[in-house]
Amino acid sequence: MQNSNLRETANTKILQVGVVQQSCTADVDANFAKSIAQIRRVAQQGAKLVVLQELHRGLYFCQQEIAAQFDLAETIPGPSTQVLSALAQELDIVIVASLFEKRAVGLHHNTAVVIECDGSIAGKYRKMHIPDDPGYYEKFYFTPGDLGFHPIQTSVGKLGILVCWDQWFPEAARLMAMAGAELLIYPTAIGWSPEEAADEKVRQRDAWITVQRAHAIANGIPVVSVNRVGHEPDPANGPGLNFWGSSFVVGPQGEFLFSASVDREETQVVAIDMQRSEQVRRMWPYLRDRRIEHYGDLLKIYRD
After folding, report:
1. Across 63-88, average pLDDT
2. Number of domains in the chain
3. CA–CA distance, 224 with 183 (Å, rounded to integer)
4. Is residue 6 part of a domain?
5. Which residues pair with residue 266 across a beta bridge?
């Protein structure tokens, strides 16, 4: 597939990526309309790839285990992908969206879907690592993904899509890179409890940024991480969650190309030189020097 959505010169291959960081309310239709408006905005500014945050259609419903929330799930293809496919075709862009997938009765996934610029579904990724922590009771809702770590080929390149909790696992990033991913993309929903101490909040956010920058460095490829922002109430009247925004884009040496605020909705078009990975990997050939014959214990949960 020819990468007609990339602007190439002798030494660069620039991809314009639209980042959409937004807050959400209980009004699913209003949230989706806002996402669509922001997609149009960044497309008008030149974006050829647009990335939305995790579960962008509504509130982050996993703060509690509530069976009625399964009513929010939808099929893929389905209503949301139908709208996004028409939009992608109209604007000639690739869209990465995150949906609550209803695969079958009683079988659901946290799924990122990639819409090609011709409106077709280029592929999807089902979240592999599923958390089960206070405020993040995802195991109640989501079956772990079964599609593995396979990049999705698009007109803008080979995209390594991972989702939120996946971003803490270097194995996932490495496997995507080993399969030829040119870009790692993390739709995300992560925040603080309002009850946490200020210094702990700083440590958590810094760790989140650092681990993803490390994936860029260790694999020599850019990373795009898009988080939601704003306070979302707990349906059981707990403290709720303050999503910390901070969406960012880094290059293959972990260098910041864009960093969003912690407390505001933002959209931004970020230019990524997709050719730099070639240059960086020549200097830092991590894939060449891996000692795979000695890594067998990585298949164990723990070395006792």
Report:
1. 98
2. 1
3. 8
4. no
5. 21
CATH of the domain at 65: 3.60.110.10
Give residue 132's identity as a one-letter amino acid code: D
Name the catalytic one among 24, 62, 117, 164.
164
The helix (run of H) or strand (run of E) holding residue 241 is strand 241-244
Predicted confidence (pLDDT) per residue in 222-276, tens digit: 999 999 999 999 999 999 999 999 999 999 999 999 999 999 999 999 999 999 9
Which residue is catalytic, options 127, 138, 182, 232?
127
The secondary structure of residue 161, as a DSSP letter, is E
The Cα–Cα gap between 169 and 223 comes to 14
Q: What is the pLDDT of residues 84-116, one digit of tens each?
A: 999 999 999 999 999 999 999 999 999 999 999
In this structure, what token pair is assigned to residue 281? 């990997």
Whole-structure pTM value = 0.95
24 is annotated as an active-site residue? no
CA distance 67 to 152: 32
Q: Which residue reads 């700083």 in tokens?
A: 202
Q: Give me the mean pLDDT over the 174-196 stretch.
A: 97
Active site residue 62: no
Q: Which residues pair with 154 in a beta bridge?
A: 157
Question: Rounded to an integer, what distance in angstroms lies between the CA atom of residue 210 and that of residue 170?
Answer: 12
54 classed as catalytic: yes
Residue 35, domain extent: 15-285
Question: 147-182 burial, b for 16+ CB within 10 Å, e for fewer?
Answer: eebbbbbbbbbbbbbbbbbbbbeeebbbbbbeeebb
Confidence at residue 9, expressed as pLDDT on a 0 to 100 scale: 53
pLDDT at 2 over 50: no
